[in-house]
């Protein structure tokens, strides 16, 4: 126990202060690490003709069954009876 005549310890000698500082410091370090990863590894570029490729894929999958219809057509014809 400290006597009343001795001065208190400085703030950096208390463990709970460093516990409170460690949380936000870890978040800042993680933020910079995430930024570095994002800048160091660029995203792959989408093909410039992605829409045309999708249309071509839909044409090749034009089977008589409705399993390969585009989403809008499949939704619009969900209750349409199938022809024999």
Describe this structure in words.
- This protein has helices at 15-40, 50-60, 71-76.
- The model has no long low-confidence stretch (mean pLDDT 79).
- It is built from 3 helices and no strands.
- The chain is elongated, with a radius of gyration of 32 Å.
- It has 2 domains: 13-40; 46-78, no CATH class.
- With 84 residues, it is an all-alpha fold.
Supply the key terms.
single chain, 84 residues, mainly alpha, 2 domains, transmembrane, Nitrogen fixation protein FixH, membrane
In whole angstroms, how far apart are the ends? 94 Å
Number of strands: 0
Rg value: 32 Å
* H and E string: HHH
How many individual helices?
Answer: 3
Poorly predicted residue ranges: none
What's the story with the biggest beta sheet? Answer: none
Structural class: mainly alpha
Structural domain tally: 2
Architecture blueprint of SSEs:
Elements: H1 15-40, H2 50-60, H3 71-76
What can be said about this structure in brief?
The protein has 84 residues and is mostly helical.
